[in-house]
Amino acid sequence: MLKSYEAIYDHGKITWLDTPPDVEQARLIITVVPSPSMPTAEGPKRRRPPEALKGKVRETGDIVSSLFSEEEWEAMFERTARQIEGDPEAFK
Known about the structure:
- This protein is of the alpha+beta class.
- It has one domain (7-87).
- The chain is built from 1 helix and 2 strands.
- It has a two-stranded antiparallel ribbon.
């Protein structure tokens, strides 16, 4: 299974935002996500899913922060939680 790791590339140097992969050598596939406000290695803001989704989703990092506002992000989490719980209105 492939795993994703978040890092910052800055002038030829990679700084891991989380725990780096535990490998000696590996082939990498890089996706560049331009962002007006780059997170820092010292601690990017992380969003957490609501309790209703606990154990049902994996936290993969804050890779969509520049695409959605805080309110849109929360609304998506809440709607997904309602869909998982079987609320038919959440699918409209």
